[in-house]
Amino acid sequence: CCEWLRCCGAGEPRPRTVWLGHPEKRDQRYPRNVINNQKYNFFTFLPGVLFNQFKYFFNLYFLLLACSQFVPEMRLGALYTYWVPLGFVLAVTIIREAVEELRCYVRDKE
């Protein structure tokens, strides 16, 4: 009947007794009820944001176009005309995602 419970190793569901006002009788075997709405952690923030940005065609196109300017035969103008707009878009996106992650962190702590 409840196959989805067995996949986590829970076995058969059993009732849980919650003792109010008796901290010595509390059973510590159960995990805490914690809500986590964050998309990234400290180590996955920058790779995750960059991956999410470069999976869009135009961002990837402008990255490849900017990288192609390192080849002298393909250079059309100054390097900063390609890298500054791309860097600006990425910087704004990274700052926006960082603010959003900080807000989620603060909300989760509340």
TrEMBL record:
Q: How does it sit in the membrane?
A: Multi-pass membrane protein
Q: Which residues form a coiled coil?
A: none
| Mitochondrion among keywords | no
Cellular localization per UniProt: Membrane
Q: Name one GO biological process term.
A: phospholipid translocation
List the Pfam families hit by this protein, alphabetically. PhoLip_ATPase_N
- Example of a GO cellular component annotation carried by this entry: trans-Golgi network
MF terms (GO), sorted A to Z: ATPase-coupled intramembrane lipid transporter activity
What keyword terms does UniProt attach to this protein? Membrane, Transmembrane, Transmembrane helix
Name the residues that span the membrane: 78-99
Domain P-type ATPase N-terminal residue range list: 22-83
* Listed name of the protein: ATPase phospholipid transporting 9A (putative)
